[in-house]
Fold:
Amino acid sequence: MSKKLIFIIILNLFILFIALFFDPAEKSFNFKADFIFLNMRIPRVLLAFFVGALLSLAGFLCQHLFRNALATPDILGFSAGAAAMIVVFQHFFPNLQKLLQLASGFLGAMLAMGLLLSVIVIFANYSIYVILMTGVALGLFFSAFVVLAQYLMDYSQSYLIMRWLLGGLQTAGINDVILVFVLLLIQTGFLVLLKTELLLLATPEAFAESHGVETKKLRIAALVLLAIVIGGTVSVAGPVGFVALIVPHFALILVKGNYLQRITVSFLIGGGLLTMADFLSRAIIYPAEIPVGAITSFIGAPYFVILLIKNLRIR
Structure:
Protein backbone atom coordinates (compact mmCIF):
# COMPACT_ATOMS: atom_id res chain seq x y z
CA MET A 1 0.00 0.00 0.00
CA SER A 2 1.45 3.37 -1.08
CA LYS A 3 2.10 6.25 1.32
CA LYS A 4 -0.43 8.40 -0.58
CA LEU A 5 -3.18 5.83 -0.10
CA ILE A 6 -2.36 5.46 3.62
CA PHE A 7 -2.52 9.26 4.00
CA ILE A 8 -5.92 9.41 2.24
CA ILE A 9 -7.30 6.65 4.48
CA ILE A 10 -6.07 8.41 7.64
CA LEU A 11 -7.51 11.73 6.39
CA ASN A 12 -10.89 10.06 5.74
CA LEU A 13 -10.93 8.55 9.22
CA PHE A 14 -10.20 12.00 10.66
CA ILE A 15 -13.04 13.56 8.62
CA LEU A 16 -15.47 10.84 9.72
CA PHE A 17 -14.43 11.33 13.35
CA ILE A 18 -15.04 15.10 13.14
CA ALA A 19 -18.36 14.69 11.32
CA LEU A 20 -19.63 12.12 13.82
CA PHE A 21 -18.51 13.54 17.14
CA PHE A 22 -18.16 17.31 16.80
CA ASP A 23 -21.30 19.07 18.01
CA PRO A 24 -21.79 22.49 16.32
CA ALA A 25 -24.28 23.51 19.03
CA GLU A 26 -21.76 23.10 21.85
CA LYS A 27 -18.69 23.80 19.67
CA SER A 28 -17.03 20.79 21.24
CA PHE A 29 -16.85 17.02 20.90
CA ASN A 30 -19.78 14.97 22.15
CA PHE A 31 -19.34 11.22 22.58
CA LYS A 32 -22.83 10.45 23.92
CA ALA A 33 -24.64 7.70 22.01
CA ASP A 34 -28.02 9.41 22.29
CA PHE A 35 -31.06 9.34 19.97
CA ILE A 36 -29.79 12.13 17.70
CA PHE A 37 -26.38 10.48 17.30
CA LEU A 38 -27.74 7.00 16.55
CA ASN A 39 -30.77 7.86 14.42
CA MET A 40 -29.77 11.09 12.69
CA ARG A 41 -26.03 11.75 12.69
CA ILE A 42 -24.74 8.26 11.87
CA PRO A 43 -27.15 7.76 8.91
CA ARG A 44 -26.34 11.26 7.63
CA VAL A 45 -22.57 10.84 7.81
CA LEU A 46 -22.74 7.40 6.19
CA LEU A 47 -25.04 8.71 3.46
CA ALA A 48 -22.70 11.65 2.76
CA PHE A 49 -19.71 9.30 2.45
CA PHE A 50 -21.54 6.79 0.22
CA VAL A 51 -23.11 9.45 -2.02
CA GLY A 52 -19.73 11.16 -2.43
CA ALA A 53 -18.05 7.87 -3.32
CA LEU A 54 -20.87 6.96 -5.70
CA LEU A 55 -20.74 10.29 -7.54
CA SER A 56 -16.94 10.11 -7.77
CA LEU A 57 -17.01 6.65 -9.32
CA ALA A 58 -19.79 7.79 -11.69
CA GLY A 59 -17.53 10.65 -12.79
CA PHE A 60 -14.60 8.26 -13.17
CA LEU A 61 -16.67 5.92 -15.36
CA CYS A 62 -18.07 8.78 -17.43
CA GLN A 63 -14.67 10.35 -18.11
CA HIS A 64 -13.17 6.95 -18.90
CA LEU A 65 -16.10 6.11 -21.19
CA PHE A 66 -15.82 9.26 -23.29
CA ARG A 67 -12.08 9.83 -22.84
CA ASN A 68 -12.73 13.43 -21.91
CA ALA A 69 -11.99 15.32 -18.70
CA LEU A 70 -15.25 17.29 -18.85
CA ALA A 71 -17.62 14.35 -19.28
CA THR A 72 -19.73 13.86 -16.15
CA PRO A 73 -23.35 12.81 -15.50
CA ASP A 74 -24.09 16.48 -14.71
CA ILE A 75 -22.82 17.69 -18.09
CA LEU A 76 -24.62 14.87 -19.92
CA GLY A 77 -27.95 15.97 -18.45
CA PHE A 78 -28.64 12.89 -16.32
CA SER A 79 -28.82 14.83 -13.05
CA ALA A 80 -31.08 17.49 -14.58
CA GLY A 81 -33.37 14.79 -16.02
CA ALA A 82 -33.73 13.05 -12.66
CA ALA A 83 -34.30 16.35 -10.83
CA ALA A 84 -36.88 17.55 -13.38
CA MET A 85 -38.91 14.35 -13.19
CA ILE A 86 -38.93 14.42 -9.37
CA VAL A 87 -40.04 18.08 -9.35
CA VAL A 88 -42.81 17.43 -11.90
CA PHE A 89 -44.05 14.48 -9.83
CA GLN A 90 -43.87 16.67 -6.73
CA HIS A 91 -46.15 19.18 -8.46
CA PHE A 92 -48.83 16.61 -9.25
CA PHE A 93 -48.31 14.54 -6.08
CA PRO A 94 -47.36 17.00 -3.28
CA ASN A 95 -47.09 14.23 -0.68
CA LEU A 96 -44.69 12.24 -2.81
CA GLN A 97 -43.59 9.05 -1.07
CA LYS A 98 -39.95 8.00 -1.04
CA LEU A 99 -40.54 5.04 -3.35
CA LEU A 100 -42.32 7.18 -5.95
CA GLN A 101 -39.61 9.83 -5.67
CA LEU A 102 -36.97 7.16 -6.26
CA ALA A 103 -38.89 5.79 -9.26
CA SER A 104 -39.32 9.27 -10.76
CA GLY A 105 -35.58 9.94 -10.32
CA PHE A 106 -34.70 6.73 -12.15
CA LEU A 107 -37.23 7.54 -14.87
CA GLY A 108 -35.89 11.06 -15.41
CA ALA A 109 -32.26 9.94 -15.63
CA MET A 110 -33.19 7.11 -18.01
CA LEU A 111 -35.18 9.56 -20.15
CA ALA A 112 -32.16 11.87 -20.38
CA MET A 113 -29.97 8.92 -21.35
CA GLY A 114 -32.50 7.78 -23.99
CA LEU A 115 -32.66 11.26 -25.53
CA LEU A 116 -28.86 11.54 -25.57
CA LEU A 117 -28.50 8.18 -27.32
CA SER A 118 -31.28 9.06 -29.77
CA VAL A 119 -29.52 12.26 -30.86
CA ILE A 120 -26.23 10.40 -31.29
CA VAL A 121 -27.84 7.60 -33.34
CA ILE A 122 -30.07 9.86 -35.47
CA PHE A 123 -27.21 12.15 -36.49
CA ALA A 124 -24.68 9.29 -36.52
CA ASN A 125 -22.17 11.53 -34.81
CA TYR A 126 -20.14 10.05 -31.97
CA SER A 127 -17.74 12.95 -31.43
CA ILE A 128 -17.27 13.94 -27.81
CA TYR A 129 -18.08 17.57 -28.68
CA VAL A 130 -21.54 16.61 -30.02
CA ILE A 131 -22.19 14.36 -27.00
CA LEU A 132 -21.22 17.03 -24.46
CA MET A 133 -23.16 19.83 -26.23
CA THR A 134 -26.21 17.55 -26.48
CA GLY A 135 -25.91 16.87 -22.75
CA VAL A 136 -25.75 20.61 -22.00
CA ALA A 137 -28.81 21.21 -24.18
CA LEU A 138 -30.70 18.43 -22.39
CA GLY A 139 -29.76 19.95 -19.04
CA LEU A 140 -31.23 23.30 -20.12
CA PHE A 141 -34.33 21.56 -21.49
CA PHE A 142 -35.01 19.75 -18.21
CA SER A 143 -34.23 22.89 -16.21
CA ALA A 144 -37.08 24.62 -18.08
CA PHE A 145 -39.48 21.98 -16.73
CA VAL A 146 -38.19 22.61 -13.21
CA VAL A 147 -38.77 26.37 -13.55
CA LEU A 148 -42.26 25.83 -14.98
CA ALA A 149 -43.21 23.40 -12.21
CA GLN A 150 -41.92 25.82 -9.55
CA TYR A 151 -43.89 28.68 -11.10
CA LEU A 152 -47.10 26.66 -10.88
CA MET A 153 -46.52 25.67 -7.24
CA ASP A 154 -47.50 27.69 -4.18
CA TYR A 155 -44.81 29.69 -2.39
CA SER A 156 -44.02 27.19 0.37
CA GLN A 157 -43.77 24.23 -2.00
CA SER A 158 -41.67 26.25 -4.45
CA TYR A 159 -39.26 27.21 -1.65
CA LEU A 160 -38.88 23.57 -0.58
CA ILE A 161 -38.12 22.55 -4.17
CA MET A 162 -35.59 25.37 -4.55
CA ARG A 163 -33.90 24.25 -1.33
CA TRP A 164 -33.87 20.61 -2.47
CA LEU A 165 -32.36 21.54 -5.87
CA LEU A 166 -29.27 22.84 -4.05
CA GLY A 167 -28.62 19.38 -2.62
CA GLY A 168 -28.82 18.24 0.97
CA LEU A 169 -28.64 15.26 3.30
CA GLN A 170 -30.72 16.52 6.20
CA THR A 171 -33.52 13.99 5.60
CA ALA A 172 -31.14 11.01 5.66
CA GLY A 173 -32.61 7.76 6.90
CA ILE A 174 -31.38 4.19 7.14
CA ASN A 175 -33.31 3.19 4.00
CA ASP A 176 -31.49 5.90 2.03
CA VAL A 177 -28.16 4.61 3.32
CA ILE A 178 -29.01 1.03 2.28
CA LEU A 179 -30.15 2.14 -1.20
CA VAL A 180 -27.00 4.16 -1.90
CA PHE A 181 -24.77 1.42 -0.47
CA VAL A 182 -26.37 -1.15 -2.82
CA LEU A 183 -25.88 1.19 -5.81
CA LEU A 184 -22.27 1.71 -4.71
CA LEU A 185 -21.67 -2.06 -4.61
CA ILE A 186 -23.19 -2.47 -8.10
CA GLN A 187 -21.13 0.35 -9.61
CA THR A 188 -17.90 -0.76 -7.94
CA GLY A 189 -18.53 -4.33 -9.10
CA PHE A 190 -19.07 -3.11 -12.67
CA LEU A 191 -15.82 -1.14 -12.66
CA VAL A 192 -13.74 -3.94 -11.10
CA LEU A 193 -15.22 -7.00 -12.81
CA LEU A 194 -15.14 -5.39 -16.27
CA LYS A 195 -11.69 -3.88 -15.76
CA THR A 196 -10.16 -5.46 -18.87
CA GLU A 197 -13.05 -4.51 -21.14
CA LEU A 198 -13.17 -0.94 -19.83
CA LEU A 199 -9.41 -0.50 -20.25
CA LEU A 200 -9.72 -1.71 -23.85
CA LEU A 201 -12.62 0.69 -24.34
CA ALA A 202 -10.16 3.55 -23.83
CA THR A 203 -8.18 2.36 -26.87
CA PRO A 204 -9.21 2.88 -30.53
CA GLU A 205 -12.52 1.12 -31.21
CA ALA A 206 -11.15 -1.23 -33.88
CA PHE A 207 -8.43 -2.42 -31.50
CA ALA A 208 -10.92 -3.03 -28.68
CA GLU A 209 -13.29 -4.98 -30.95
CA SER A 210 -10.40 -7.08 -32.28
CA HIS A 211 -9.90 -8.21 -28.67
CA GLY A 212 -13.52 -9.32 -28.32
CA VAL A 213 -15.01 -6.21 -26.70
CA GLU A 214 -18.49 -5.31 -27.95
CA THR A 215 -17.89 -1.60 -27.59
CA LYS A 216 -21.40 -0.32 -28.37
CA LYS A 217 -23.09 -2.75 -25.97
CA LEU A 218 -20.57 -1.96 -23.24
CA ARG A 219 -21.05 1.81 -23.67
CA ILE A 220 -24.84 1.45 -23.52
CA ALA A 221 -24.58 -0.78 -20.42
CA ALA A 222 -22.31 1.80 -18.77
CA LEU A 223 -24.72 4.64 -19.63
CA VAL A 224 -27.68 2.68 -18.23
CA LEU A 225 -25.71 2.08 -15.02
CA LEU A 226 -24.85 5.79 -14.80
CA ALA A 227 -28.52 6.72 -15.28
CA ILE A 228 -29.59 4.32 -12.50
CA VAL A 229 -26.87 5.57 -10.14
CA ILE A 230 -27.62 9.25 -10.77
CA GLY A 231 -31.38 8.69 -10.51
CA GLY A 232 -30.83 7.08 -7.11
CA THR A 233 -28.47 9.73 -5.73
CA VAL A 234 -30.61 12.67 -6.92
CA SER A 235 -33.74 11.15 -5.36
CA VAL A 236 -31.92 10.79 -2.03
CA ALA A 237 -29.63 13.84 -1.85
CA GLY A 238 -30.78 16.18 -4.60
CA PRO A 239 -28.52 17.22 -7.48
CA VAL A 240 -25.13 17.63 -5.77
CA GLY A 241 -22.84 19.13 -8.37
CA PHE A 242 -19.15 18.96 -9.27
CA VAL A 243 -18.13 15.98 -7.11
CA ALA A 244 -18.20 13.72 -10.18
CA LEU A 245 -16.06 16.25 -12.05
CA ILE A 246 -13.25 17.16 -9.68
CA VAL A 247 -12.56 13.98 -7.70
CA PRO A 248 -11.45 11.72 -10.61
CA HIS A 249 -8.90 14.42 -11.53
CA PHE A 250 -7.45 14.48 -8.04
CA ALA A 251 -7.23 10.69 -8.24
CA LEU A 252 -5.44 10.88 -11.60
CA ILE A 253 -2.94 13.41 -10.23
CA LEU A 254 -2.19 11.16 -7.24
CA VAL A 255 -2.02 7.77 -9.00
CA LYS A 256 -1.40 8.16 -12.71
CA GLY A 257 -2.03 5.15 -14.91
CA ASN A 258 -3.13 2.64 -12.26
CA TYR A 259 -6.78 1.78 -12.94
CA LEU A 260 -7.65 -0.01 -9.68
CA GLN A 261 -5.79 2.49 -7.51
CA ARG A 262 -7.62 5.36 -9.25
CA ILE A 263 -10.94 3.68 -8.43
CA THR A 264 -9.88 3.27 -4.78
CA VAL A 265 -8.62 6.84 -4.47
CA SER A 266 -11.72 8.26 -6.23
CA PHE A 267 -13.91 6.28 -3.82
CA LEU A 268 -12.09 7.58 -0.74
CA ILE A 269 -11.63 11.20 -1.82
CA GLY A 270 -15.25 11.46 -3.01
CA GLY A 271 -16.58 10.06 0.23
CA GLY A 272 -14.35 12.27 2.35
CA LEU A 273 -15.05 15.40 0.31
CA LEU A 274 -18.84 15.17 0.57
CA THR A 275 -18.67 14.17 4.25
CA MET A 276 -16.60 17.27 4.99
CA ALA A 277 -18.84 19.45 2.82
CA ASP A 278 -21.91 18.18 4.68
CA PHE A 279 -20.24 18.81 8.04
CA LEU A 280 -19.39 22.38 7.00
CA SER A 281 -22.96 22.89 5.77
CA ARG A 282 -24.16 22.05 9.30
CA ALA A 283 -21.49 23.89 11.24
CA ILE A 284 -20.76 27.21 9.49
CA ILE A 285 -24.02 29.06 10.30
CA TYR A 286 -25.48 26.74 12.95
CA PRO A 287 -28.39 26.29 13.70
CA ALA A 288 -29.22 27.06 10.05
CA GLU A 289 -27.70 24.97 7.26
CA ILE A 290 -25.98 25.86 4.01
CA PRO A 291 -27.03 23.53 1.17
CA VAL A 292 -24.24 21.03 0.63
CA GLY A 293 -24.51 21.57 -3.14
CA ALA A 294 -23.53 25.22 -2.62
CA ILE A 295 -20.31 24.20 -0.88
CA THR A 296 -19.35 21.65 -3.56
CA SER A 297 -20.13 24.27 -6.24
CA PHE A 298 -17.83 26.82 -4.56
CA ILE A 299 -15.05 24.24 -4.88
CA GLY A 300 -16.01 22.76 -8.24
CA ALA A 301 -16.96 25.78 -10.38
CA PRO A 302 -13.44 27.35 -10.46
CA TYR A 303 -11.95 23.91 -11.08
CA PHE A 304 -14.35 23.40 -14.02
CA VAL A 305 -13.17 26.68 -15.59
CA ILE A 306 -9.54 25.60 -15.19
CA LEU A 307 -10.27 22.26 -16.87
CA LEU A 308 -12.17 24.01 -19.68
CA ILE A 309 -9.26 26.36 -20.39
CA LYS A 310 -6.83 23.43 -20.25
CA ASN A 311 -8.90 21.43 -22.76
CA LEU A 312 -9.20 24.40 -25.12
CA ARG A 313 -5.42 24.83 -25.07
CA ILE A 314 -4.95 21.16 -25.92
CA ARG A 315 -7.31 21.59 -28.89
Remarks:
- Strands lie at 22-23, 28-29.
- The first helix runs from residue 3 to 21.
